[in-house]
Write a structure and sequence with these properties.
five-stranded antiparallel beta sheet; 42% strand; single chain; 2 helices; mainly beta; 9% helix
Amino acid sequence: MTDKMRWRYGDTNPVVAAVDAETVIEIGDLVYQDVDDAKPAALLPDQGSEAANQDALAFNFLGVAMQRSRAGVADSIRVATTGVFEFDCPSGTFELGDLVGADENQAGTALLNQQVAEVAAARYAIGRVARRVPAAATTVLVDVRSTVMTGGVQGGSPSGV
């Protein structure tokens, strides 16, 4: 995926995160904190299932990349820890407050850097739907919450999980 500014509105509460020189991050990538560096969702080691991958990402979720990091460059990047972002998603409908996590690739071996899907419980979520989608669509507005910086998606959900 190429750089895509996904931020639409709201405070981003940015942080500056370190990035290893060999790590490539694009604007709009979902990123997690790996010890002391930011990495895109697709680099998370496969946990064996989509739910386990989503859980691992949500637990270490740093936010959405607002700057790119090219291979061979070890400069820090700005990461939004909150705010409303528009992400690609599998065709579907969404209600306000629905839980959203990273989507997995078709092979079932890695998460996608810039695509989300509805999830069953807050432990898998990186945010909540910020605008109702009553007719099937392939994009959704998500109010993201960094687990590392804000404690993540908390509270009750429509399913009570």
